[in-house]
Amino acid sequence: MREINLVINGSDVQATVADRLLLSDFIRDDQRLTGTHVGCEHGYCGSCTVLLDGASVRSCLTLAVQTDGHVIETVESLAVGADLHPIQEAFRSNHGLQCGFCTPGLLMTTLELARENRDCSRDEIRERLAGNLCRCTGYHQIVDAVQAVLRTGLSR
Ligand code: FES
Ligand code: FES
Known about the structure:
Elements (H helix, E strand, L loop, with lengths): L1 E7 L2 E7 L5 H8 L18 E4 L2 E4 L12 E3 L12 H8 L9 H12 L7 H7 L11 H13 L4
Parallel strand pairs: 1-5
Antiparallel strand pairs: 1-2, 3-4, 3-5
Helix pairs in contact: 2-5
The protein binds FE2/S2 (inorganic) cluster (FES) (2 copies).
């Protein structure tokens, strides 16, 4: 067991965790932040994507102890109460989700991209989203949503 200190969604967190505990399990089971989804648990589907110091990582391939001293952002950091984040609003208004299983990971990958503050072609967007699998939408509306976000920018 090891003590870790990190920031999750703006809050200081101190915890004692097993050396082998996955970040996805730490987030979901210990921290009760179940918005991060777990699909394949092998690094393929991207549904477990969170930001570690602003960079997207697979939380199913990251150990909780690796986050000691770092900053984690999960999908719960996006909305403020009932107020959707601009990225969530873009996915909603462009019909970029159906079952929603892939959506938390896609939102966090989009957040990383949107913070780069540049426009991207549809092909570039598809390339950036290539690590996030969606079994429902056919991706077209997801790309629409991301393009809308990149065009308007992030207001928060
Ligand atoms: Fe982590 Fe699929 S659950 S990549
Ligand atoms: Fe169902 Fe993407 S909306 S997997």
